Amino acid sequence: MTWWRNAVVYQIYPRSFADSNGDGVGDLRGIVGHIDHLTALGVDVVWLSPVYPSPQDDNGYDVSDYQDIDPLFGSLDDFDTLVEALHHNGIRLVMDLVVNHSSDEHQWFLDSRSSRYAPRRDWYWWRPARAGMTPGAPGAEPTNWASYFGGPAWEFDEATGEYYLHLFSRKQPDLNWENPAVRGAIYDMMRWWLDRGVDGFRMDVINMISKDTSLPDGDARFANPAEHGLADGGPHFICGPRLHEFLREMRDTVGEGRPTPPLMIGETPAIDHEQGRLLTDPVRGELDMVFQFEHVDLDSGHTKWDLRTLDLRELKASFARWQNGLGDGWNSLYWDNHDQPRAVSRFGDDDPEYRDLSAKALAGILHLHRGTPFVYQGEELGMTNVPFDRIEDFRDIESVNYYRGAMAAGADPQAVLAGLRIKSRDNARTPVQWTDGLQAGFTSGTPWISVNPNHQEINAADQRSNPDSIFNFYRQVIALRHADPVVVEGDFTLLVPDDEDVWAFTRRLGDVELLVMANLSRRNVTPALDQTPWVRGETVLSNYPSGGPSAGAFTLRPWELLVRRRRCDDTVIG
Ligand code: TEU
Predict the structure, then answer these.
(1) Is 267 an active-site residue?
(2) Averaged over 540-566, what is the pLDDT?
């Protein structure tokens, strides 16, 4: 069994985790100061979002030096101290690898843009204006692709009269992976971090690195009307023609000669489980697991801002597809991260009456599926979306660009702000709430983004000492994963797929079976499944003080989670 199949990963978004020097931004020493929080939780791996030198245009996902630490977060010595402290506590470290694109302030790009004949010109995607068009004129971009952060995916460079590709912000030019010198430089850099003690990588939008080199236009039928005729270029760079080749080359090159191969987690937007199976099939030697988006795209229409009501039946079906559709491959399991709204607000119920129960129900559902669970900082506390009421409160480039574009198109500011309060990435980026005190104990200074005012009710200090807290429920769930092989190795069967309130499934390994049931509503509900076989079992997890069925069917209370274990030969357990 590979170690990461029964591991739990904790994601740290460093700028919002803990600030040790009072500058209002989280840093590496702040993380070292809270390792006890991680060891108490029982996590096995930390995924650290970028801490490399960066202009911070996209909060560090625009890297200007891949082999150093931004002074904002500390130094390489601080990094070495963190690695040592984590390893001393039995926790591995996975770095965020952002190599689909660099910052436009990276030396590689400065060289590349210096001249059409620069040695590194071909390290990025440079193209002339569309044939017959005036360079720099609207619509003269080489393709009609839209950037994920608004506007065209091509930026005109006056100095050399050509355009460069940027799928994200114009300060994030795409690296040209067709160039073996680019790939070699990246692999060297990866080995440098592994030699420094890093245990693996979470690879940012890694399924975008291979483009269709003919650079065709996107299908204008799917153009976003708010984006002036720009279209989705995704079919021409999502899982492109050489992706599998590049990933195998990366794993072979970077892992060569290492007794323990590095953990390779691929962030792979817009893939389905069939692509996920290919990417994570151990025989193919590409990725160990994918971080896919199918379930977090279900409440979006044409764009993430086009809100769509989430249907529990679709959510259950999506998880089930990934449970049984990966063959020998492997999946991450997550509710949220630094790009997604807070889990308890999106999938749970953050009304004070139900927040605690629903956060625990979500934890039990996610962590008892087959895969490697990820806990995003603050999720273990039941932190919620943030009630920002002005655009000036937001910091995320994606949110601010969206607001600006919507205002330019004449949209109603309050309607757009309402959408931001539901979907903005800033919901996940407010400071971790350590105490009920000033700035939630995150900083002694002024935080880079406001602390959620509900930190007086939701904070780590209160929860660490409360045995019935969400934090301590996460501890129980994580401990169950470490103790019971059914959780990691058991098969998966979805029950009552058409029930609009209840999520129920079984996990079975040999003659031991778990039944996981949760009521995701504020009503009492009775799931249409036979409880009789479970009466002789034992309750292994519940978010209510007294859980457990009487003979026959029984009722689940609002947001009740109940996990039962039994022997399939019906001998009594326990
Ligand atoms: O995110 C990739 C990605 O697909 C996101 O842009 C996602 O589609 C969007 O955030 C949903 O609103 C990765 C990083 O996680 C993200 O923070 C970066 O902004 C992005 O890549 C560019 O590096």
Answers:
(1) yes
(2) 81
